[in-house]
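Module 6 notes. Inverse folding takes a fixed backbone as the condition and produces residue identities as the prediction. Think of it as a translation problem where the source language is geometry and the target language is the twenty amino acids. Below is one complete input and output pair. Work through it position by position during the lab.
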């Protein structure tokens, strides 16, 4: 019989469990920041954005609702490392948890540069940066279209330079140069200038002052790049322009020359100080030269003493090499060799004798366990016509031809009638532990 269910354990529906989990997750993770790499990116037709945040050990589902996606400064891209701010929630339809993203940030300047480089490679593969697409700038443009902020220092600097050097007619298309509106407005301005039927500029300038890499990201947007590539009007990029750049460059040049001159003077002064403490060449080599003179004077006497010492050693060695001494050493060596030969023969004979005794013992043991010794005691070995051994009378059929092996030979015989019943011996499986019989 099965056990009765536990009546005091509450029962939940699937929806109740899913709702309880959703409330628990959202209450405990109402605002979190999660860093990871974007993968599985999908821009749904509804305007929502779905992707996964992953690291080397885990994956977290992420969703950006349509209204939030339109306000993002940084749009997620596959392979980009980002930091998402939002809340954790659950999706009961598939029993999974996810982060509902409210804000997206790049995970450092390195990630920003990696995104720009990946975008550059992808657009270059389409041919957008080919040299053949570049348009020749007009030598004397009559009308110049400027796309920039109307309140920044850039437009004032452009107008000042044109007025001082080359007065021309300027058409300003005001746009945001930073933030989420910048990229679409710049792209629309490029397309707008190209769409003018009358008074269309001969040259376009897209300008923006200096700033951080994040501030200039709007001009790296794919929409801006494609608009610039599609422009029929020659276009100049003045993004990152600095006011009074020439004066700043001249100031850097002046400072560089001052630093170089000061460094050169410091090194010249230091070199002079080092030169004063160095000894004069004649003083530097005086002592080694004097040591060389003394060594030269001692060289002749040292050579004579060395020759005498070697001659004495030679004579001493020659005295040891007389014929009688050599003969004595040869004779001593022969005696030692003869003694070693005698010892070797004795050792070999002893080993052979020991081996013979061992072999004789093994032969006796072999004779003792041989079945022929049993036959010598009056026993016989009985085999059937098929050559198999017959150990029991019941295994022999009447009239069966037999071979009887005795100690001095074998004879043929025929089985007669006996008390046992004639039968065919069954084929038995040999046990792994059966060591057989002497017969």
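Target side of the pair, the amino acids:
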């Amino acid at each position: 019989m099965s056990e009765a269910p536990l009546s005091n354990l509450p029962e939940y529906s699937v929806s109740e469990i899913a709702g309880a989990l959703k409330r628990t997750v959202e209450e405990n993770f109402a605002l979190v920041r999660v860093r990871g790499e974007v993968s599985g990116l999908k821009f749904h037709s509804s305007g929502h954005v779905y992707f996964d945040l992953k690291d080397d050990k885990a994956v977290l589902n992420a969703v950006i609702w349509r209204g939030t996606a339109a306000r993002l400064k940084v749009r997620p891209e596959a392979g980009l490392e980002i930091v998402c701010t939002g809340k954790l929630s659950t999706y009961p339809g598939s029993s999974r948890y996810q982060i509902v993203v409210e804000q997206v940030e790049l995970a450092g300047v390195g990630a920003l540069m990696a995104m720009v480089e990946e975008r550059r490679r992808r657009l270059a593969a389409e041919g957008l940066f080919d040299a053949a697409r570049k348009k020749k700038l007009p030598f004397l443009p009559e009308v110049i279209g400027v796309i920039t902020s109307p309140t920044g220092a850039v437009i004032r600097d452009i107008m000042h330079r044109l007025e001082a050097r080359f007065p021309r007619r300027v058409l300003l298309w005001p746009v945001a140069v930073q933030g989420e509106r910048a990229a679409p407005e710049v792209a629309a301005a490029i397309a707008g200038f190209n769409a003018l039927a009358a008074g269309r500029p001969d040259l376009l300038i897209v300008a923006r002052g200096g700033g951080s890499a994040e501030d200039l990201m709007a001009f790296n947007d794919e929409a801006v790049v494609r608009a610039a590539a599609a422009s029929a009007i020659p276009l100049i990029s003045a993004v990152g322009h600095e006011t009074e750049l020439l004066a700043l460059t001249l100031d850097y040049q002046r400072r560089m020359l001052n630093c170089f001159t000061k460094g050169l003077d410091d090194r010249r002064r230091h070199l002079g100080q080092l030169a004063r403490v160095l000894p004069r060449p004649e003083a530097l080599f005086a002592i080694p030269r004097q040591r060389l003179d003394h060594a030269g004077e001692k060289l002749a006497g040292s050579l004579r003493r060395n020759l005498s010492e070697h001659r004495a050693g030679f004579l001493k060695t020659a005295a040891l090499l007389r014929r009688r001494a050599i003969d004595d050493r040869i004779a001593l060596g022969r005696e030692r060799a003869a003694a070693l030969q005698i010892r070797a023969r004795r050792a070999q004979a002893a080993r052979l004798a020991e081996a013979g005794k061992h072999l004789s013992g093994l032969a006796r043991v072999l004779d003792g366990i041989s079945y022929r010794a049993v036959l010598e005691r009056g026993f016989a070995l009985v085999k059937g016509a098929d050559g198999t051994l017959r150990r029991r009378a019941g295994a022999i059929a009447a009239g069966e031809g037999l071979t009887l092996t005795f100690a001095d030979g074998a004879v043929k015989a025929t089985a007669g009638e006996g008390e046992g019943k004639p039968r065919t011996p069954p084929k038995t499986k040999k046990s792994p532990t059966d060591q057989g019989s002497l017969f």
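Reference fact for the lab report: The two ends are 64 Å apart (CA to CA).
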